[in-house]
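Here comes just one.
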Amino acid sequence: MDIYEIRRRNLQALVNERFGGKKARLADAIDRQSSYISRCLSSGSHRKRIGEEFARHTEASLGLVKGWLDEEHLDKQAVEETPIETYGKPTSDNELTFTGNMDPWDRSTPIADDEVELPLFREVALSGGGGRTQVVENNGAALRFKRSTLRSAGVSRESAACAFVEGHSMEPILPDGASVGVNTADRQIKDGKMYAIDHEGLLRVKFLYRLPGGGLRIRSANPDKAEHPDEDLDENWPEKVNIIGKVFWYSVLLH
């Protein structure tokens, strides 16, 4: 068996075992087009050979040791013989699919080729400000994102930032401690969309609405309107509210 066939069989095994038989998931994980993966796994005359550069890129993206795709793995035979027509079809009634283990990291972990670090915003107290605060970029703190996640959302690396939600005003959508991704290049208000705003030094994530006469409505998600009522500002709202950007992603840690 030549090296290209070994790589093809191993790549197919990865699709089956780690990505539920879905080539699109592998493509997203390694930052490649699904059509390219399909050509690599094709059994027809248009099959794309898996070369050295693509093999090493795939291994690095998936946390495999260098050369893993070049070696025959004894437990892959049964996987390879699965009919290709069944790939991607549900094999059980499960509603969740785990595609691999989480990869923990800290600031000492080198950033991967398919990742970017996004800055975090935070709220700080002003010295002598009588309790006033200011929203600043939290230098030195960041969240890591897949480049493909930003690409799918249509957000550039330079325009992306992150923030954490504090409090309960946006529950049940964004509970306390949720993290959000913000597109700082998208500040034009679209009614009912979620935005990160600097409201006189207070960092907030809210739904925004335009009002007649140039006003602005700030709305929480929590249905308890007695505690979190709508806030309507007049046409002078830009003096109080700075729109940081539109929320394009959020993540929730369940306790």
